[in-house]
Fold this sequence. Notes:
binds zinc ion
Amino acid sequence: MNSADLKKFIQGIPKAELHLHIEGSFEPERMFEIAHRNGIGLEYDSITSLKKAYQFNNLQEFLDLYYIGAQVLLHERDFYELTWAYLCKVHSQNVVHVEVFFDPQTHTDRGIAFEVVISGIYKALERAKDEFNMSFRLIMSYLRHLSEAAAFATLESSLPYKQLIDGVGLDSSELGNPPKKFAKVFAASAKQGYQLVAHAGEEGPVDYIWEALDLLKVVRIDHGNRCLDDEALVQRLCDDQIPLTLCPLSNVALKVIQKMEEHPVKKMLDKGLLATIHSDDPAYFGGYMNENYYETAKALALTDAHLMQLAINAFEASWLDPETKERRITEVKDYFRAVQV
Ligand code: ADE
Ligand code: ZN
């Protein structure tokens, strides 16, 4: 298939996005617009100079910039516009279901009320449900570079909005902040009815993936690239069909891998792992869902069978109710069958 045909083919696949940080969908143009409206100066004097700073050697260099960008978000309207823009974009890419991360501490630590953050995000998600028939789940992430006590305080702040939140996650600086630091707060979160996921094995070692499974008791691993270093872990992930939400463009941008050709997703699929593809922080890493599928498919020469498996896996790994899940998976299969004829 040539590039144009492959892009068109990927466009048509009904897709689910399960690994997306809403703050990471903040496009520079919108960041400047909102900064201006809120009277906040950015340390970059133009969109061009900001974009030039998007060169990262590791996760931390990216996070430093990501937290600076998020500082211009003050009002409910800002969170709403950020989220709505993301949803419009992925709707145009035939994404029909999203599970969105937000980082409350990035905002509450600056004095923004939890309610302001969640109301803006949630109103946009509800609009996408009404206007696009897009289903959604919302995941609150604890920042792992902060303390366990701070995560507990965030859990407490979330309780009045419990009905709006489906799960909790763990993100930010991985190295030096192992999952075990958050074992108690994850147990407390589960007691509140939240589902559990965690970033693990992005930059961190396989031990962190084991800890996420055994100590945090997560139902999905975000990233998990490093699992291939450990055969027993691969076996466990396969046996329990624990999803790995991979983000190929992110991995290249943050130098988790040196080039796309080295991405482990094909090996993972071939081993029977429940691997899925997502965009992580698309405004920073050069692409949304379609671009992640396209660049991966091209670099690894993925077959139609691989692409179909990736699309099915994402619905399988989602927190959709069983009937909707089944319906979406049937839609994916029908699409591949129709296009092959
Ligand atoms: N927060 C936003 N993007 C992240 C990533 N890729 N890893 C860890 N924390 C993040
Ligand atoms: Zn992430």
